[in-house]
């Protein structure tokens, strides 16, 4: 493959992964927007009997983007150092991280069940986009 072809492939890979990250963020924002439309008071769980902090659009954007970019980064590292098994290892790690992340919405106090369900839905949609789409951008060598 020529140098120009390699650069074009890298650009295309970067673009495909950026679209996956954007889709994950948009999915979280859609869930947040639906919750707002139904006037659900979205709060993060807190320790003790305090009411949790409000979950606004900025937090949804930041957390979903950071998680998605971390997934991208891990996949890129795995492709470099465990190329033959990058996709499968990444998918297993992503699944474990997802399961662990569910402790967030369901732990702590100061949050009603509706908010817990919406927060869980955000975790689910971001994970669904990432687990179904990000590995598709990986090389087909493994």
Structure description:
This protein is mainly α. It has one domain (3-137). The chain is 71% helix and 0% strand. It is built from five helices and no strands. Helix 2 runs antiparallel to helix 3. The longest helix has 35 residues, at 3-37. It is elongated.
SSE layout:
Blueprint: H1 3-37, H2 57-81, H3 86-101, H4 103-106, H5 113-133
Features of the shown structure:
mainly alpha, 0% strand, elongated, single chain, 142 residues
Count of distinct structural domains: 1
Helical element count? 5
Kindly provide the radius of gyration, computed on alpha-carbon positions and rounded to a whole number of angstroms: 17 Å
For the secondary structure, the number of strands is 0
Structural class: mainly alpha
Form type:
elongated
Mean pLDDT: 90
Instruction: Note the run of SSEs as H and E.
Output: HHHHH
Proportion in helices: over 70%
**Largest sheet entry:** none
State the low-pLDDT regions, or none.
Answer: none
- What share of the residues does DSSP label as strand, in percent? under 5%
- Separation of termini? 20 Å
Quick description:
This protein is mostly helical and 142 residues long.
């Amino acid at each position: 493959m020529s140098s120009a072809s390699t650069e074009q492939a890298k650009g295309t890979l970067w673009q495909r992964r950026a679209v996956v990250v954007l889709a994950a963020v948009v999915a979280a924002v859609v869930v947040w927007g639906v919750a707002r439309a139904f006037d659900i008071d979205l709060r993060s769980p807190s320790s003790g009997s305090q009411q949790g902090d409000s979950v606004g659009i900025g937090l949804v954007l930041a957390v979903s983007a950071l998680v998605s970019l971390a997934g991208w980064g891990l996949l890129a590292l795995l492709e470099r150092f465990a190329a033959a098994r990058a996709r499968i290892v990444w998918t297993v790690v992503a699944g474990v991280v997802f399961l662990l992340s569910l402790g967030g919405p369901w732990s702590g106090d100061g949050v009603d069940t509706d908010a817990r369900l919406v927060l869980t839905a955000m975790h689910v949609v971001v994970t669904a986009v990432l687990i179904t789409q990000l590995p598709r951008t990986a090389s087909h060598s493994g």
